[in-house]
Amino acid sequence: ETGVTQSPTHLIKTRGQQVTLRCSSQSGHNTVSWYQQALGQGPQFIFQYYREEENGRGNFPPRFSGLQFPNYSSELNVNALELDDSALYLCASSLKGAGYEQYFGPGTRLTVT
Amino acid sequence: AQSVTQLGSHVSVSEGALVLLRCNYSSSVPPYLFWYVQYPNQGLQLLLKYTSAATLVKGINGFEAEFKKSETSFHLTKPSAHMSDAAEYFCAVSDHLEYGNKLVFGAGTILRVKS
């Protein structure tokens, strides 16, 4: 069974640029959630995708957007990067209706300068 | 809205001592509760979950947690700390979405284990 994978591991961007983060869900899972974890804080829910549609969104502006593909992998896109976007971005996969737990990838560390 | 409060941002114990990490939740419906562990520069690993079955839940690595509805608590314990338990621990409550659920996390507790 393959776990959740994310790419890249780290990246550095400049304020105002755009970034795309990628996530492959665990085998058999059909739902992907994205979380932002700022330094010293707990993860904050960004949004979730189920059947390629957004299924709930946290308190994040529209410049945070996402996609889910037919193979259940997902992308997180952030436009017009701000310094406060510097964080660890975590992807989690789950199987709708099966226990409610989510399984997390290792994360992508984004630094905005 | 669901929320979680973790009491104590840092906890320090000696190797072999009892570990107690505190979590209180607020939920308008019967909650599903989770504990996750995060090692430095890594993602979150599920330790255990409560989903309305037995109130005492056993997880991996010798951890367990007890759901107490009257106290709205879900504290994490381990009888004897090991050096490898040093990490950050997050309590989370499930919040329903239209077709699934999201997790609402506490701020985390960093566990230090002294030799």
How would you describe this structure to a colleague?
The complex is a heterodimer of chains A (about 110) and B (about 120). Chain A has about 110 residues and is mostly beta strands. Helix content of chain A is about 0%, strand content about 50%. Chain A has strands at about 5, 10-15, 20-25, 30-35, 45-50, 55, 65-70, 75-80, 85-95, 105, 110. In chain A, strands 2, 4, 5, 6, 9, 10 and 11 form a seven-stranded mixed sheet that branches. A four-stranded antiparallel sheet of chain A has the order 1-3-8-7, with no helix packed on it. Chain B is mainly beta and about 120 residues long. Helix content of chain B is about 0%, strand content about 55%. Chain B contains no helices and eleven strands. The interface of A and B includes residues 58, 97 and 103 of A.
Structural class of chain A: mainly beta
How big is the Rg of chain B?
14 Å
Q: Looking at the chains present, what oligomeric state does this protein adopt?
A: heterodimer
The total count of helices of chain A amounts to 0
